[in-house]
Amino acid sequence: MRLRYSALMLLAAAALPFSVLSCKNGGETAGESEIVEELPPLYGFEPSEFDSDTVEVKYGDTFSVLMMRMGMEASDAYALSELCDSVFDLRKIKAGNHLHAYYDSTRTLRYAIYEQDKVNATVFQCSDSLAIWNVSKPVEHIRKFTDVTINSSLWNDMLAAGGSPELIMNLADIYQWSVNFFALQKGDRFRTIYTQSVCDGEFVGIDTVHFSLFDGYGYKQTAAVRFETAEGGNTYWDKGGVSLKRMFLKAPLKYNRVSSRFSYSRRHPVTGKIKPHTAVDYAAPTGTPVHAIGDGTVTKCGWDPTGGGNRIRIKHNMGYESSYMHLSKFASGIRVGTRVTQGQLIGYVGATGTATGPHLDFRIWEKGRPIDPLKLDSPASDPLDSAYLRDFDALYGKYMSEVAAFEKPDTLGN
Questions:
Q1: How far apart are CA 209 and CA 168, in angstroms?
Q2: Could you report the per-residue pLDDT of 207-250, keeping only the tens digit for each?
Q3: How many CB atoms lie within 10 A of CB 270?
Q4: pLDDT digits over 405-414, tens only?
Q5: Which of 146, 156, 280, 378 would give a disulfide with 246, using CB separation of 3.0 to 4.6 Å?
Q6: What are phi and psi of 135, to 5 degrees?
């Protein structure tokens, strides 16, 4: 078999969407015929013209083994794998995924397709000359508005409103400094304008969250406006042009519930004694990741002899300190003197020391004074430069008008 490396073959054609081009020469007059040109098939061949089969990738399979299982000669399978080096990383073929094989009438393997995801695929030409090329299906970008009021849970209510788990994760990232997503209340509301990708009618992903409004129990209305500056950095701002990014996260972990609140006269669940509990206890399963709430330096990392078990203490800027106790273990690389960044993994929930069950004892001090973590007013980052405010205010007004229009569909387009 004659080998020919043609990795770029058909790329231009493959990038084109399924459609028909209508070509007209000047104005159309009676009797003139329209020239219609059919676009090349997406994959460089028409799958419907071949018999097809599907092969599942099994643990330990190599590419050559897979191709031979589909009927390719060993020497050709090896030669084809050699062509992949600069076109497709064969390590991306994972156990449990599938290759689609296409045969001619003599049961000769002509092509194979590996779909990397919903959009991207790699085509292997297996007869005549050997070749590999990548293709991408046409993707549609749709601007959407989702209005979700919490009734049972954000997850269930978001899906019921036509949103997606990925949108939830995007909102959690955007609001992580200002909204506690693990303590949302019934009646809390998110209104969001965003763009999502769709391929072959299937959801692919969230492109951009442009704007969101959160109304929640115990919160002022919190807007999130996507606005980028020449300096880069912070992307989302509230309606006053103040960055949503704060000095501290709202919580250091994903917890099930608050099992004990900040108090100066709590009865200890183990000893029964009345004493101050200047902490918040977050109940969570053993092994739940614990993250630093802000940038800082680890000042304590070890066993707390007063009952706190495995404990980490971090010194932050502006006189703040945070403490994390009853950890099952510390994250790799965490020790006294380690510089940590906001959101960095530092340990895992446990029940070490004096504890009735797995939980995180979390404390914050401001200049040596204990403060309630649930009431912490985290210092804000710098606001937008005044040079941007005019454009920012106009964008905020535009998004608010869009929200109003989405809520009253009859006004859209007017």
A1: 11
A2: 999 999 999 987 888 999 999 888 776 689 999 999 998 899 98
A3: 10
A4: 987 765 444 4
A5: 378
A6: -135, 155
